[in-house]
Amino acid sequence: MKAAFLTGPRKMEVREAPSPRIQREDQVLLAVAEVGVCGSDVHTYKQGQIGGQVAQYPWIVGHECAGVVRRIGAEVRGLRVGQRVAVDPLIACGTCDQCRAGRRHTCRNQQFLASPGQAPGALAEYLVMPAQCCLPIPDSMSFTLAALTEPFAIGLYATRLGRLSRGAVAAVLGCGPIGLSVLMAVKAADPSARVFATDRLDYRLEYACRYGADWTGNPDRLDVVERVRQAAPEGAECVFECAGQQETVDQGIRLCRPGGMLLMVGIPEADRLSLDVHLARRAEIVIQNVRRQNQCVAPAIEMAATGRVDLMPLATHYFDLDHCQDAFETVADYRDGVVKAIVRVTGR
């Protein structure tokens, strides 16, 4: 099969590789159709690591994917050959204390697609996954939309953690695919919520307006904290930090109301970020980290399939597998108004 391998920082080669085989009877073999380029993949692409996890080259990235079932193990139920599926990229053990507590996303033995040292990624013609990670999609759902449900599921999970009250004030700092997903999830849950959104790229603020942001601002041109505080003097009930930057962490602390919550959704490139502990302490601000999409892929599929959210505009650029490095360069450098780049591996 063909697969795209990282061979060094910002170096990618499409090579022939052995096709994976089903090793357990609860697994399925998928023909990968499409893969979205995620910001976490770009961390690994640019730096050879993410969050202290270092890639051993050659390494396959990509985890936002959808495809077609080609073979099934003898114990697989609920899936058939030829079925179209979206993939939950988290492979959890199902037996550790975290899994038993309903926290599969913090499984102590997890294997996540494309995470260095864990499971190889999806930028390949074929992929073997546990059947429980393969969620059937309607015939009406395109593979692009199916792949987009994975990042949306992260926004959905973050929103559920926030537990916003009716008509609450929220802020989304960073309007890339994850920030926009948070915005969509907040507005889907409560159209009356007031959402303030920021980003350094004006075209992404235009997307935020399209998805219902009540106010948008570019921090390179104005004091976003001051402007939001003028419009919402009591502050935000929840601030979703979706950029992974020191600047947005600082803004988030200042935007939270007393007793508010700062949700850390973005993955920083730096190993450490700091905060003004006295501002956070005096306002008793809750700092909530958000990891992945804890069991939210299925509801994300349902919301996309029924039109409760419109994810398709996020997919702005398409590439074939042979040109996947162009896809990564486009996303890494924010070229050409990119929001989400999609790599078409084996076609529609």
Mean pLDDT: 96
Give the CA-CA distance, first to last residue: 17 Å
Contiguous low-pLDDT stretches (5 residues minimum) are none
The CATH architecture name of the largest domain reads Alpha-Beta Complex
Q: Major β-sheet, in short?
A: 7 strands, mixed
Number of beta strands? 19
The total count of helices amounts to: 10
Could you give the order of the helices and strands? EEEHEEEEEHEEEHEHEHEHEHEHEHEHE
CATH topology of the largest domain: Quinone Oxidoreductase, Chain A, domain 1
Class from secondary-structure proportions = alpha/beta
Overview of the molecule:
It is built from ten helices and 19 strands. It is α/β, with parallel strands linked by helices. The chain has two domains: 2-136 and 311-344, Quinone Oxidoreductase, Chain A, domain 1 (Alpha-Beta Complex); 152-289, Rossmann fold (3-Layer(aba) Sandwich). The strands form five sheets. Strands 3, 6, 7, 10, 11, 18 and 19 form a seven-stranded mixed β-sheet that branches. A six-stranded parallel β-sheet has the order 14-13-12-15-16-17, sandwiched between helices. A two-stranded antiparallel sheet has the order 1-2. β13 (194-198), α5 and β14 form a beta-alpha-beta unit. α3 (143-162) crosses α9 and α6 (224-231) packs parallel to α7. The radius of gyration is 20 Å and the shape is globular. The protein starts with a strand and ends with a strand.
Which structural traits does this protein have?
alpha/beta; Quinone Oxidoreductase, Chain A, domain 1; 2 domains; 27% strand; globular
